[in-house]
Amino acid sequence: MNENKKKYQIALSLIEGVGDIIGKKLLAFTGSAKAVFFAKRNELEKIEGIGKVLVKAILSADVLARANQELKWLEKEGVNHLFYSDKHSPNRLKQCQDAPLNLFYKGNIDWNKDKFISIVGTRKASSFGKQFTSELVKELAPYNPVIVSGLAHGIDVAAHKAVLEYGLEIIAVFAHGLGKIYPSAHAAIAKSIAENGCLLTDYLSGTVALPQHFV
Known about the structure:
Blueprint: H1 3-12, H2 20-30, H3 33-37, H4 41-44, H5 52-59, H6 64-77, E1 80-83, E2 102-107, E3 116-118, H7 127-140, E4 146-149, H8 155-165, E5 169-173, H9 187-196, E6 197-201
Parallel strand pairs: 3-4, 4-5, 5-6
Antiparallel strand pairs: 1-2, 2-6
Helix pairs in contact: 1-6, 7-8
């Protein structure tokens, strides 16, 4: 892990007012996350959509200490980090204007495998719905896709259980940091998922599961 490089990559998303779209504009103009922090005021003001208020926030941002703290946590917990411009970051996400700048994951996955299928649904699933989900995964198994879901109650966790049963790769996407498992009742299955795919989020470790974080 190139800690110095990753420090600036994580810090970029911590600057107030810099989201995924603005972050990419800054990267395109300066060339790297680190360069953003060393850019001159007059250079930043040339970027379309970057006003004086945001330029001031960028130039006065005191976020590197928090980014360093996150890097230490990632190393301690065995959590991996991918940046938007990294060679092995998911190509499909790069087609999205608001693709996350940073991804944090525990486990191992081929991000650019041929087939990915997302299975999500109601948290209050009927027994029929859960059984249908299991049979759907069974029918998909010969095509060997990576199954993506959210580890929530109901259809999501039914999909995860079926994927583990039929030996497919799996990604559980969290709406919070990897410092905890939500819902906590799914901690055991989350461990199995990390061993057969990965747990994935674009949120820092201490981020809690708020309604607006769920896609």
